[in-house]
Amino acid sequence: MAKKESNLKNMLFALLLITLIASASLGGIYELTKEPIAAAKLEKKNNAIKQVIPEFDNNPTSEVYKAAVNGDTLYFYPGKKGNDLVGTAVETYSNLGFSGEIKVMVGFLPDGTINDVAVLEHEETPGLGDKMERKKSDWSVQFQGKNPETFRLSVKKDGGDVDAITASTISSRAFCDAVARAYEEYKSINDNK
Predict the structure, then answer these.
(1) In angstroms, rounded to a whole number, what is the distance separating the alpha carbons of residues 42 and 60?
(2) Cα 152–153–158 angle (5° rounding)?
(3) 3-class DSSP string for the chain
(4) Cα 80–Cα 82–Cα 88 angle in degrees, nearest 5
(5) Rounded Cα–Cα distance for residues 53 and 45 (Å)
(6) pLDDT computed for residue 153 by the predictor
(7) Which of 55, 102, 120, 150 could be joined to 97 by an S-S link, Cβ 3.0–4.6 Å?
(8) How far is Cα 152 from Cα 158, in angstroms, rounded to an integer?
(9) How high is the pLDDT of residue 166?
């Protein structure tokens, strides 16, 4: 068998063939994993809703409403028992994290008191900023039962009432920013009802 001579035409053909195979493989893998990833995100969201508001018997995701805030969107999931509102879970965000965006679910009782908070997504530093997650630390417990009317949602270093995560003041500020954003919009919507 004769060895082919290496020239520009042969190299371009080989590169094109490799690129086509790689892109087809990536596209196929994306199509295979798209639905399972979406299902996992939805399950995580539903679990967060269950965690942050009292027991409910409706499907909050089917009654979701949203509000545009600072060029992005907050999602409100009302939890009801019968016809009575027991709490509202608010999917909120902050772009002030050390490593970018932080998404959290904040549960409010009808009077505006924070029932609980759950982290949905973040890219904060492992061992430091990731302590905002309940499985890593109980730092976020300090928000439970607090009413933002009297509990200042900023770190003590900035004159607020929140103890910052040690060595992660930026992450703590971002978490507070997300919770405060959720409360302000929740309050605004409820004041206008």
Answers:
(1) 12
(2) 80
(3) CCCCCCCHHHHHHHHHHHHHHHHHHHHHHHHHHHHHHHHHHHHHHHHHHHHHCCCCCCCHHHHCEEEEECCEEEEEEEEEECCEEEEEEEEEEEEEECCEEEEEEEEECCCCCEEEEEEEECCCCCCCHHHHCCCCCCHHHHHCCCCCCCCCCCEHHHCCCECCCCCCHHHHHHHHHHHHHHHHHHHHHHHCC
(4) 10
(5) 13
(6) 95
(7) 102
(8) 10
(9) 87
- CA-CA distance, 110 to 86, in Å (whole number)? 6
CA angle 58, 63, 68 (to 5 degrees): 145
The pLDDT profile of the chain, 193 residues, written as one tens digit per residue, is 566 677 888 899 999 999 999 999 999 999 999 999 999 988 999 999 999 999 999 999 999 999 998 888 999 999 999 999 999 999 999 999 999 999 999 999 999 999 999 999 999 989 888 899 989 999 999 999 999 999 999 999 999 999 999 888 999 999 999 999 999 999 998 876 6
Say if residues 60 and 77 touch (Cβ distance below 8 Å).
yes
Please tell me the distance from the alpha carbon of residue 59 to that of residue 81, in angstroms, as a whole number: 10
Which distant-in-sequence residues (6+ apart) come within 8 Å of 105 by Cβ? 45, 48, 49, 51, 52, 89, 90, 91, 92, 117, 118, 119, 120
Widest distance between CA atoms in the chain = 84
